[in-house]
Amino acid sequence: MIGELYFEGWNGRAYLATLVDEGSEKLEVAILRGVSTERIVAEFRERTSDRLNRGILVAYAEEMLAKHVEGASFGSGHFWRRIAPILQLLDVDRRRVADCLDAHGIGDWWSASFAIAEQLPLGWEWSQRFDIAHEVAIASSRLDEYSTWWITPERLPVTLDARTVRSGQPWLLDYYQSRPVVGSTPLDFGNAKPPVYEIASARDWAEFVDSYPYAAKSFRTYDWGYPGSAGLVIPDWAKVAKDWDGVHVSVSGYPSAAYRPLPIRHGWTVLAGWHPGATVWLRWP
Questions:
Q1: Helix axes of 94-103 and 56-73: crossing angle, nearest 10 degrees
Q2: pTM score > 0.85 for this model?
Q3: This protein's superkingdom (predicted)?
Q4: What are the extents of the domains in the chain?
Q5: Which of these ranges, 8-17, 44-53, 176-185, 191-200, has the smallest mean pLDDT?
Q6: Per-residue model confidence (pLDDT) at position 183
Q7: Residue 266 CB coordination number (10 Å)
Q8: Could you tell me where the DSSP H helices lie in 146-248?
Q9: Class of residue 168 by CB neighbours under 10 A (exposed 0-12, middle 13-18, buried 19+)
Q10: Which helix (H) or strand (E) element contains residue 235?
Q11: Alpha-carbon distance values, 213 to 111, 133, 162 (Å)
Q12: DSSP bridge partners of 147
């Protein structure tokens, strides 16, 4: 079930706006023309009702989620963050939209947890079979020297849920041109049942980091839209690897948690980079 969870935070509300308007262009034009916030909100509600009545939201829900995921990660995320106060006002109808999508079974698989029989390998790491434990140890020893887009060690193997791959390409095509999906046949893990930590919401990510915290001192990132790293807490991946083989972010968990500063016990954290339906592996299954 989708519920309102998918529309939490600025990223989730941005997905709602993307779904209703099939992109950000209408809002961008209205803001550039100086249209009042009241009129923007009123017209957005009218478009929401119209698309609900005509079933358009249902027809394009998955396509617009893929479009939003790519846009929020590359470029348009800056726009959505700038208009966060307006997005806050646009979510007045999110319950209606969520109920509509739920009623049609849209996104039932979005909330699916890790499925071992549906994992497609991403990138060259799967053919290298290097010492993954060594990579985790090195990355963990250099957390204060780290610079990354993903908030994970970059050389770790990644798999994608098969349904997030279209015509051999993941949703975030631009980023993965150098790390293509390897083949179209899911990996054969045999009878293995690896323990995989599940991230299905922003709360899950916050609790995950709280369970394995590392207070970053000079952790450098690419542009997440948040200046500096004061108070930033990231996962201690060496400690995570003692308990879990992998960490999976569900399709529903991504718009809920990604690029959203989340308060935790000793500071704040953020789910940066990643991909809907991606599993990062800390130990070979």
A1: 110
A2: no
A3: Bacteria
A4: 3-106, 116-281
A5: 176-185
A6: 61
A7: 12
A8: 202-211, 237-243
A9: exposed
A10: strand 233-235
A11: 26, 19, 31
A12: 220
